Amino acid sequence: ANLGRQPTVTTGQVVGRKLEITTRQGDRSSRHEIPWSASDHGFFYEQTSLKNKPMVPGEKRSFSALLPIFHRLAQTELTAGQWSNTKLLSDAQELLPIHSRTTLAGQQFEATLWMDRTGRILRTDEPTLSQSTIRTTKAKALAGQDAAPPDLIVGTVIPLKGSRADFSPLTPARYRVQVTSAQSGPPFPNTPRQTCKAGEQRGTWELIVQPNSQASDSAAGPFAADRPTPADRQASRMIEHENDVIQQLARDVPAIETELRLAAALTQQVNAWIEQKDFSAALASAAEVARTQRGDCTEHAVLLAALARARGLPARVVLGLVYVPTLGGFGYHMWNQIWCDGEWHDFDATRASGKCGAGHIQIAVTPLDDASGLVVFLPVLKVMGGTQIELSELEK
What we know:
Number of strands: 22
Strand content: 35-45%
Radius of gyration: 23 Å
Number of helices: 8
Helix content: 10-25%
């Protein structure tokens, strides 16, 4: 994999009833193990299974296989439909639709695979990201005559219904959220900054988001148990706060009388240090960001977490949504929570002010430790598929 500018190399070996996985990036490596049995399969087993034995209408098939990037076992169930004439890029073919349901780390993801009679998957429809992938020749793919150039950022934005929003750092907001997938709990967690409760109609939720300055005390009440863990302080493959460049960046911020003001100063340090704001890397490590001084929200978040930990402040990364005025909706975003003076505070290093307002909606938090891996991003994918958000009001 190559999420950052430094290649990430992962190797695995089955030893007894476990799979030992080693991940290396640069001069740093990490290891973890997962249970393994004779019935488990490797990467891309879904495609291999269909190629070796194409499914027939009405057939069902299930298996356990390792997923690339996540490096976790997932359970997949396949159910074949009936042959039908299916549109591809410039033509149509008779294909067999196969409904796929994959369960990974407690999250379910569905897709439709379109298979030809030789077992090749020619089209995949993924409702989670509202995307279709079509297999074609290199010449047709590069010609670009049948489709607009793909834009993942714009394509995954959740439009904001209602009046145009102007989120100030001091104004709370009330949203009406509608989800299409069946789920037992709220689509967004309840935190000191936000409250999500069931709406009047089935499948709707009322979400109230407070700016950081008005959030309730996270060290008391129902959030008292949400305190720093060892993983919020330790170095990991993504957050190498023991790196010499990161240590120097952290020391460049002078001693400040309160932890809250120190965290704010570290946030401003990251904002100024990352000179080139771009999407050139999917998820670079903090050490790489410190060296290249470039990146988007993910790079700002990992670097700020590293600087905070280097100064003795527990820090974690927030996965969520942020309102983007130019796109008229909510896009995927990452920012930070830093433990200051006995409670968690939100900081967004992509902003010069570092402040988080009611346009920041939290989905999950993670220390980005080596054990969790990229499965921490799964809740984000669930929200991005089929969620509708409407602004009810900007509260006074």
